[in-house]
Amino acid sequence: MLLALRVKDFAIIDEITLDFHDGLNVITGETGAxxxxxxxxxxxxxxxxxxxxxxxxxxxxSVVEAMFTxxxxxxRLLDEWEIPKEKDGTLLVSRELNKSGxxxxxxxxxxxxxxxxxxxxxxxVEIHGQHEHQKILHRDFQLEVFDRLGGEELLDxxxxxxxLFLKLRNLYSERDExxxxxxxxxxxxxLLSFQIEEIEKANLRIGEEEELLEERQKLQxxxxxxxxxxxxxxxxxxxxxxxxAFEQLGEGLDxxxxxxxxxxxxxxxxxxxENAKVYLGEAVDNLIRYKDSMSFDPSTIEExxxxxxxxxxLKRKYGKNIEEILNYKEKAKEELDMLSNMExxxxxxxxxxxxxxxxLLYESEKLSEMRRNMVEDFVxxxxxxxSELGMEHAKFAVEFMExxxxxxxxxxxxxxxxxxxxxxxxxxxxxxxxxxxxHVASGGELSRVMLALxxxxxxxDNTPVLVFDEIDAGIGGETAxxxxxxxxxxxxxxxxxxxTHLPQIAAWADYHFHVEKKVVNDQxxxxxxxxxxxxxxxxxxRMLGGSIVSDVSQQHAKELLVxxxxxxxxxxxxxxxGEN
Length: 580
What we know:
It is a single chain. The protein is built from 20 helices and 17 strands. By secondary structure, it is an alpha+beta fold. It has a domain at 1-124 and 463-531: Rossmann fold, CATH 3.40.50.300. The strands form four sheets. A six-stranded antiparallel beta sheet has the order 2-1-4-5-6-7. Helix 8 packs antiparallel against helix 11 and helix 9 (245-260) runs antiparallel to helix 11 (270-293).
């Protein structure tokens, strides 16, 4: 339900805030007063594309805000998008458009895309404009309307057919892709086999490159290290040009020993020097052993260089390091295995296609049978509604035809919607042949056909808010009374908004809003007010007599209100099981 609507700087609307209620809400006003602007603003909020032309002259942006009550699907979407819910169970939405053409949408204060806003509000509001009846001319829309009347069971069957159709089409595509890319598949198999073999022949090991670089560095420094060790040994232990460090340390130790008996503090140093001499001896022994163990084979460094070059070549092709090269090999093996098993996959696809084709033939035939079983009752109900709307001689029919596109299975043409499309056929007058609706119906007749369908759909349609924008074009007289009753009957289960120029419809309103255009300080302004009692009689009188309001027209207006009130009361009694 739409609880409130605020429109600011939209077209010639400066600012309007309206509260709404359940039932039939009617909007009236003189031609050009801007009645349909409210519908346009609501359509903008629902995600309809709009240009910056809608921004009121002198303003920088247009803003439309609304408050709705929520339903289960809206709550599910809010949870899915992680948008917080209001504690009072209301839904707050807004959309603004600035002069740069940028649009901002919010749901409960959270920014969302226009697409998200459109998806959300499509579960709450449905708008039928004055040209909406043109949709009934299209076969896709006719099939959609027809199927919705079949209820959940038919819609579930329709979804089942669609899922099977899409699955089969994907299987066909996969099969065609395999056949069409056989040459590329073989080339890819050859390339992957070569790459895997090349990497495996290298027998790489993670960490190997680092070890080789370290070993090469050692070999490149071999001579420098050997000469340095010999120099160190000479100075530490066996210096031919003088006393070595070992000998000098021994001399110093002897002197300290001789002094230790004279000075106790000097004596404490003896053990330190003795340890130093032992450690120096061990160090020299280690240097000698390491020097004697050193060996150099020129062929070793050549082998290391060759190995490093081979690794670098593989790195250029397959990865930045050995780990990445080995990962590439594993992925290549997986792809090679998949490509090598493509023939087996092809056999599986053929078997799966056969099974899905059989299933689709069965389920689509079941769907067709369900549709054909609906025709008689559907036609009868449409003809009854048309008769009540002043087309008592009209005959209605549903023609089944093969879809123009789809899959051909064993000579049967099937689309994602089933084995058929439908065409609504109409014979408006006795003796006329049935012809497609688009070839025979006038604008007024189309409006009545659409309303007849909406009346029937009211039993299965869950959209809580319906907006009708001057769908009464071409209707008048007694038919207008019948149209008003049907709108009011629908409003017992839905919140209805109807922009109308017919006083017969306005008289049935539970809430009557009047739109008028005024010039204030050389600027045009729109004013919307809810009419009650005298003001409502005056407006109905204006609608009856044009711009002239007379005692006669006012009396007629009162009669319209009384008649509508009486019929509405009878309708309420009928709802409670009373009698007419």
